[in-house]
Amino acid sequence: MSVVDRLSADEDRKRRARRTRTIAIWVTRVLTLVISLGAWEAASRTERIDPLFFSSPSQVVNFLVASVPSEVFWVNVGVTLRETLLGLVIGSLGGVLVGLLFAEFSFLRDTYTPFMTLFNSLPRVALAPMFIIWFGIGETSKVVLAVSLVFFIVMVNAESGARSADIEHLSAVRSMGATRLQVFTKVMWPAALPSILSSMRLAVVYALLGAVVGEMLAAQRGIGQQIQYNATTFNTAGVLGLLLTLASIALILNAIVLLIERRMLGWRV
Q: Which residues cross the membrane (predicted)?
């Protein structure tokens, strides 16, 4: 067998091994989910757990089947999604801008880092009632809360990513007479981009968290407001169904961020 044939055979074995591993992972996931839901349903039907407090998978499915076709459900989903996306976009843009400025200008970093550390240490979720007092019970207070959670996540990663730029690359472009803008766009920005995009996956979750927490405290519409309503009426199936809806939204947004990351970082090995 020639070298080319051996390499081709090795590659085929590796491809089959990867395919087998992927199938095994998905089968294990499905089995775990089915067994868990089956045990939950059986425990609820035999009243080993109280259905009033724990509900059951069938009740959650019934709630979603009844709710998803309704216009009210999608209005609430739209409100929460709008608040989440606005908080994500505004917080991310602000975090990227401040993080890159801190990385580029040491005077700004040394001057304002203590203030940023102070603000970042404040529990913004605990400050949510104050945001509602300051900005009202409308969507603005939820967007502000989401921005406050997203901003520091992206800022820290943008700064650390830009400052991790290779010293030799920086020295090389500067020795060739590159301007400060060229150094930033050709070296620091590509170095910061992977960290920024990685932080976006965490930022998506926190933006959704901020919007929902704000809605649960005081809101006229939104998934968080509906969760609070169903909880006060002991509709645990409704609460779990809405939590499943939130999880689905988070998974979809995370998948979109991953797709953007792969497209923008396709040059990386």
A: 23-43, 84-103, 239-260
